[in-house]
Amino acid sequence: MPKRWMIAQGEWLGPALRFAPHHYRYRTPDGVERVGQTAVQVLWRAPFGGKCLVAYDPEDHSRSHPAQVRSGGTLLTVVGAGAAVCGVVLLVLALS
Fold it and tell me: Residues 43-75: pLDDT tens digits?
């Protein structure tokens, strides 16, 4: 997310379906209400409704997305890297 993007409080619309985009609504500081939909699956979302933070481009309001953790393989990569580090540490302890 570019540093010039703004953050606004928003809310989820509709249920959290597993294989469908999630829709959200937010209000910009000038009072205009906008809506959007996610491009990836969002982690840790309420099953129906709830609050969210939305990052948006102040110059082009059509560009926005929820400003929270999304599943894109990052969590799996971090867990795998942590397991690899633990394995190396255990190997060094076993050989010394």
Answer: 677 788 888 888 898 888 788 888 865 555 677
- Are 18 and 46 in contact by the 8 Å Cβ rule? The answer is no
Can you give the pTM of this predicted structure? 0.63
Instruction: Give the pLDDT confidence of 15-28 residue by residue, as tens digits.
Output: 888 778 888 999 98
Exposure on the CB side of residue 34, measured as CA atoms within 13 A: 22
List, in order, residues 6 or more apart from 39 with CB less than 8 Å away.
21, 65
Q: Report the distance separating Cα 7 and Cα 30, nearest Å.
A: 13
CA contacts within 13 A on the Cβ side of 64? 28
CA distance 8 to 25: 10
Q: Evaluate the CA torsion angle 60, 11, 54, 9 in order and state its sign.
A: positive
Residue type, 16: A
Other Cβ atoms closer than 10 A to 3: 4
